[in-house]
From TrEMBL, chain A:
Signal peptide residue numbers: none
Upper classification of the organism: Bacteria, Pseudomonadati, Pseudomonadota, Alphaproteobacteria, Rhodobacterales
Organism: Aliiruegeria lutimaris
InterPro entries according to UniProt: Ig-like_fold, Ig_E-set, SoxZ, SoxZ_dom
Domain Sulphur oxidation protein SoxZ: 10-104
The protein's name: Sulfur compound chelating protein SoxZ
From TrEMBL, chain B:
Chain segments annotated as coiled-coil in the UniProt record: none
Protein name: Thiosulfate-binding protein SoxY
Keywords per UniProt: Signal
Source species, domain of life: Bacteria
Signal listed as a keyword: yes
One protein family per Pfam: SoxY
Signal peptide: 1-27
Residues of the Ig-like SoxY domain: 35-136
Length: 109, 138
């Protein structure tokens, strides 16, 4: 597991039912591309987050496949419908098998 | 062999045109596109790719895609060592078929976006980004 991986997610606290809201996510991660060389002249092996998903009450909102061309600390912004009160679940999948999760509740009102 | 003035000019123009033509086609990009579309024809329109004209730092270039009707959108960077950038698949609760992120670009190049529409057709768009400092280390 890479060090210091910390997900950050911005979701409004409440929304009207049926509204579209914008979600911003950022996770601190090196996203080592596998193209760079270290001090010893050898390639640093690739280590990135290769997949990100967002679900709301078990229904898929977005599923993103990430490649090494995504910047350090991958930032993803997207829109979601909010049909009812519930919880957003965010999942990041690391190359090394680690899974980072975060969740945010949203109220109707 | 003697050339008239007219022939010399024509030869010069031909040579200049030859010089501009190649290098635009990148086999890895074509492979990635074929893998995504299955060789289907790509139309135009209905897909917007937002990218800066000039990026000072190739390590973080903000881009956005927006394609109402799209089921998924693939982004490729034609001038990177590996052309793949990201693929967005929109689920049933997606509020709009739009997303933005930050990408790495190795140098000045075309960023290509291909959207798979809900009806199974494909559209393509691209945008040239000038990069002052490349983002691939090394």
């Amino acid at each position: 597991m890479a060090d210091g991986v910390k997900p950050r997610v911005k979701v409004p606290k409440s929304a009207a039912a049926g509204d579209t809201i914008t979600i911003k996510t950022l996770i601190s991660h090196n996203m080592e591309s596998g193209q760079r060389k270290g001090k010893d002249g050898n390639l640093i092996p690739r280590s990135i987050i290769n997949r990100f998903t967002c679900e709301f009450n078990g229904k898929s909102v977005i599923d993103v496949t990430l490649e090494p061309a995504i910047s350090t600390n991958p930032y993803i912004e997207f829109d979601s419908l909010v049909p009812e009160e519930g919880e957003f679940k965010f999942t990041w999948y690391d190359d090394d098998g680690s899974v980072y999760e975060d969740s945010k509740k949203i109220a109707i009102g | 062999m003697n050339f008239s003035r007219r022939e010399t000019l024509a030869l010069g123009l031909g040579a200049a045109a030859m010089g501009f033509m190649p290098f635009r086609v990148n086999a890895a990009v074509e492979d990635a596109i074929a893998a995504f579309t299955g060789g289907a024809e790509m139309g135009e329109g209905g897909l917007t790719l937002t990218a800066p004209e000039i990026a000072e730092n190739g390590n973080t270039v903000p881009i956005g895609v927006d394609a109402p009707e799209a089921a998924s959108i693939l982004i490729l960077a034609s001038g990177n060592p590996t052309p793949g950038v990201a693929e967005f698949k929109f689920g049933e609760l997606a509020g709009s078929q739009a997303a933005s992120t930050r990408i790495r670009l190795a140098g000045t190049q075309d960023v290509v976006a291909i959207a798979k529409m809900a009806d199974g057709s494909f559209v393509k768009t691209s945008s040239t980004v000038k990069v002052t400092i490349g983002g691939c280390g090394g």
